Amino acid sequence: MSKKNRLETVVWLRETEEDRARLEMADAQRHVAAANDALSAAKARAKTDERRSASAAHWSLVESAHTRALLEARQAEHAVNAASDGLSQSRARYLGAHTRTEALRRAIESRRKEEARTEAQAERKDMDEIAMLLRAVTA
Question: Rounded to two decimals, what is the model's pTM?
Fold first, then answer.
């Protein structure tokens, strides 16, 4: 396998890794958005206080429902924090994969430029030799 093919294979592998990390980051962003929506809904439920409108017989039931709503709001806050942490970690993984891929792309591009320069130099050398031979024949 030539160097060119090996490098292109490695670049393809890095790009695949980068795409996987990008998809993971998008999934984490969706989880954060869903957790934020759940938090908003839980806070709205916790803000409603039905204890005043309930009768004394139902007060205990309404109180436990309100306590449960407050607990759900707290759990939703923890879910948002966990999802945000997951997003930060997936973003860091994506940035690492992207950086590695870009470094490899730059390396392969510089190698291609070097190969083109070497080929051009060899062609100039061949042309110079041909020109010298033609001069020698015509002289």
Answer: 0.68
